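Researcher: Next entry in the queue.
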Amino acid sequence: MGTASRASHMRSLDRALLTLGGAAVGLGVLQLALALPDAESLWWVHLVVTVTYGCFVVAGLLAWHQRPGNPMGMIVALGGFAVLVGTLGNTAVPALETLGAVTATLVLAVTVHLLLAFPSGRLPDPASRAVVVAAYAVALILQAPQYLFDDPVASVGAWVQRAAGAIVVVAAAVLLGGRIARARAAHRRVMVPLFAYGMLALLLVPLRNLVLEPLFGEIPAVVVQFLVIAGVPVTLVLAMLRGGFAREGELEELVARLGDADDPQQTPSALLAHALGDASIQVLYWMPEPAEWVNETGGVTTLPAEQATVEITLADELIAVIAYDSYLIADPEPVRAAGRVLALALERRRLSAQLLAQRDALLTSRARIVTAGDQERRRVARALHDGLQVRLVLLALDAQRIASDAAGDAAVDVQRVVALRRELDQTAGELRAFVHQLMPPALVERGLCAATEDLVDRMPVPTALHTEIADGSLPTEIESTAYFVIAEGLTNALKHAGAERLSVRIGRADERLMVEVRDDGIGGAAPRPGHGLHGLADRVHALGGVLRVQSPVAEGTHLRAELPCRVEAT
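Model: Structure for this entry, 570 residues:
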């Protein structure tokens, strides 16, 4: 159904409900017009009855409008008409008096029906159906002796009806108590107030004769009973507003709303929760490779054991499941219908979730590569620093010792040995520079701030350093990446920017490490493939960070890297 057809359908529904509402108002006015002339001083009692009738009708039509496919609204509205026809005995029209006598207690049977059918509008099991049938039988069949016979048969019939009604009320209470016991905490918050109030309204039937009438008198007791019954539809509407209604129908709207890609709230789970009235609904997508379920954000998950599920297929291929609350939605068919409507949209979302999962896996893989590369660089740096460099130093010392011992021996070429020492010193210096470039010892041993301070101290131009973190508070891969960003920024400023003043800042913003390098050079810097900044940008991105370069011509360069991590303030 297209948007225009759906709008036309909604307009037709609204017109039908308005017509029913108008008819209900007319019937209420007619009932008052027939009853008030003979009411005398009890006219206010008839107004209470009309208010009760109005509460049922308004609540029922509202629920019917909000949940067109849910029978609850219709049952509530019928409860209002049961109130109306049950009070027609107060009119002076013989036929209406007879109808009122037949249906005098019908509203109590409707109340039992409403409680046992909540929230789906359908009776969920044979026991519930049996109790509801018994309730209607008590209200209609066992009512017959009271209008067909005189005393003492009518009195016996009234006693039998009250006893049978009490049995029905107890049976309904047992069923409702079992549902409450099996329900989860979130459901109990809706069920307990509604069921408790409904049972109170039913218990007022035997209590009216035993308790209310001796305390207040016959007429006030009747008024109290009607006022309590009037609260039943009110509690139902409150339960509906708290999410207790199962919603069906209007599924055609979902695909159009799913097409609104600019709204992040328009996920299949959110739309189904709104359409079916179950806030716990979730859509999980099946990934054949590597045979796992993922949620709408691409995270790997499992099917929830506490929820019922309906499989969604497209061209005989499983694409997703809809997990839902089987208490709120007793009949899986509306969920299955929603899945059929949304199948193509769910397939598109499944592919999106698969891409998200692959992206997350790629980022995780790239982060592992960066970490492994850093660990290998650190290992090589330690090996060079602690192994080869030490050996070269020892060789240089041996060469110097040989030269000293052989100073008076003409057979030894002293100059040659001294040259060997000089070459060894030069090699050791080059090795130290290489080790420092590979992974500065200060970074390995003392941390980012200390290594940056050492780097700044060796700069040939004035360089300011501002640090807001403590060494030892960063993961090694974040620390290494931040250092190389600073080193690359300072190197580029010296080699290419002609800068006269530099500044470095290491700070934090929430859970992100902020590294900035500024210079007052010629500007014009940009990450280009094959250049240092481009490689740094890849490295920062692999860790889930961002590298920004602002370098207007003749206005200097501002290099800023944001890296995700938890940083402890100094």
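Model: The chain has 18 helices and ten strands.
Researcher: Noted, moving on.
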